[in-house]
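Researcher: Go.
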Amino acid sequence: MSTEHGQPAHSATAADPLSVSAPRFLVEIIAWVAAPWALAPHAIWLAVLADVLLIGLPTVFGMPGAKKQKNPVSIPARPAIALELLQPVAACVAAFAAWPTVVASVVVVASLAACILQLRRWRWMLAAAGGMHGDVGPAT
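Model: Structure:
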């Protein structure tokens, strides 16, 4: 299927196969564990707040069609991608604060791999946000 300009039409939802979503979910779980672990020695309320934000924000806010689940509040592609990048950043920073360097380094590698696997989906999100009804103009 293509548009009148000969460019491929974008589907209404991003390709989010298990091979891409599973590493992303793994990094999310690492962030949900590492951030409270790093913050708990300072204040328990900070540890709880970290998980409320890391779990709650992506649950409430998201770009329509970017993931299989529906988000109550729709946001544009760029803020949605920034919100998704919060998870691996939190996982990496918290891992270095809470765990041995070797473990934190593994978290960084897992986070980078998950982000690299997300690139195609993020490109779809940006392209879908660039036009209406799949008409995103010439490919670059």
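Model: The two ends are 19 Å apart (CA to CA).
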